[in-house]
Amino acid sequence: MPRILCVNPWIHDFAAYDFWAKPLGLLSLAAILRENGVDINYVDCLDRFHPRATQPVKVLWDGRGPFRKTSIPFPEEVGPLPDGVAQPFSRYGIDPEWFVQDLKQLPRPDLIFVTSLMTYWATGVRETIEIIKTVFPSVPVILGGIYAGLCPEHAIANSLADRVVTGPGEACLKSLVKEFTGYELGFIPDSDDLDTFPFPALDLQSHLAYAPIMTSRGCPFACEYCASSFLEPTLRRRSPTHVFKEIVHWQSHGIKNFAFYDDALLVNGKSHAFPLFEKIIDSKMDLNFHTPNAIHIREITREASVLMFRAGFKSIRLGLETTNFSTGRNHDIKVGENEFFTAVEHLKSAGFDTGQLGAYLLCGLPNQDMEEVALSMEIVKTTGILPVLAYYTPIPHTPMWAAAVENARFDITKHPVFTNNTLFPCIQSEKDLHRISQLKNMKI
Asked: CA 387 → CA 102, 155, 320, 379, 441, distances in Å?
């Protein structure tokens, strides 16, 4: 029986925080492997609750909290930081010594899977794999995840992985395990039927302060700044019954906070989300639900709002993007002016406090007028809810990528780290950068 190690790598960034962030794809693969009798080990380089930590762990009521942080030099192989960037570069996660000790305490694996999230965290992936190879130099390392899927050429050339996999991992899991271990997996879930997937192996975490939930994969929209439709070309859904069983499962493990990772939670709500909410309400479980990925405003009807309130939603983010609702605007239009105000009123009428509600507004797009962003913030504030600036990250394989490359103030094709939204790569002038700084602090 093969032994496979799964690793969640470090984050290298100017800022990072655990906003309900878990490597759901990697933990889903781990669950499939366990179903096949494979011996699984897991090391989380972002573990906020690592047993070697001596300082008290800060945990907010909803399970979120800060990662351990260590300042590190900006990677020499990447080149100098752009002018005007004063923030320190940091490693977020456990100490490297802890990581080495954790690896050395494990039996030698036959194969190692490493995931990747943001493209601009590429140097954290490289450092993770570099250390893995010092401990297990002859064990093949397979890299998957978002960075691998969006920047495969860069990952092949720079990550140190022995194989870079693009696309959903379950599609090639059987062949990879066979190739590198000789073991034949008997069970692979049907990618067209998400109910055949086992629950992600969240129990591999050293401590669970919350649980991520995905009721679907993919998105019916194709926003020009987003890579969702590239990474998951078709929208597939789990049944409300299957999702409810998973929520009950983690609730029985003491979990109270759940974060929906869906890109389209309320789309076709009457056949998808509403039956799930009704099951939660009928169960009388006292749970908290959060929507960090935003909810499509057009789907926030009176019925949806009441069901979400009764089910226990505690923090809701609306995918507003801008309050320029004119047909002549440059970017996607998924919501009209009246729909935004109506959605907010529905949520308030259902019982939500304005402090529970926020609207994402895009900031830092190519050729964006910062005064339009300021006006959008003002309009959102008139409803009493929080305007939340969502800083633009240029992403390869999106329709906006070409415009981002053309308008960036430095070469964002040189290395994924230069697409980091903290750098505001598509903001050309010092005046606009200063304006963003004012907007961050709500000094409109």
From this structure: 42, 36, 9, 9, 11
Shared-domain flag, residues 258 and 361: yes
Total of domains in the chain: 2
Q: Tell me if 387 sits within 8 A of 347, measured CB to CB.
A: no
Give the number of residues written for the chain: 444
Same domain, 226 and 148: no
Q: What is the pTM of this model?
A: 0.94
Q: Which residues, 6 or more positions from 12, have their beta carbon under 8 angstroms from its beta carbon? A: 72, 75, 89, 90, 91, 92, 121, 123, 124, 127, 417
Residue 186 lies in a domain: no
Q: What is the pLDDT of residues 231-283, one digit of tens each?
A: 999 999 999 999 999 999 999 999 999 999 998 999 999 999 999 999 999 99
Would you state the structure tokens that stand for residue 83, as one six-digit string? 């002018």
Q: State how far the Cα of 239 lies from the Cα of 311, in Å rounded to an integer.
A: 17
Residue-wise pLDDT tens digits, 17-44:
999 999 999 999 999 999 999 999 999 9
Range of the domain at 148: 3-181
Alpha carbon 440 to its chain centroid, in Å, reads: 22
CA distance 370 to 384: 22
Q: Under 8 Å CB-to-CB from 179, ≥6 apart: which residues?
A: none
Tell me: do 145 and 271 sit in the same domain. no
For residue 93, what are its two tokens? 């996660």
400: Cβ contacts below 8 Å, ≥ 6 apart: 224, 225, 365, 366, 394
DSSP code string of 193-231: -GGGSPPP-GGGSS--S-EEE-SEES-S---TT--HHHH
Q: Are 173 and 185 in contact (CB under 8 A)?
A: yes
Q: Cβ-count burial of 401 within 10 angstroms (0-12 exposed, 13-18 middle, 19+ buried)?
A: buried
Cα dist. 88→37, 73, 243, 362, 440 in Å? 44, 8, 41, 24, 19
**One domain for residues 159 and 246:** no
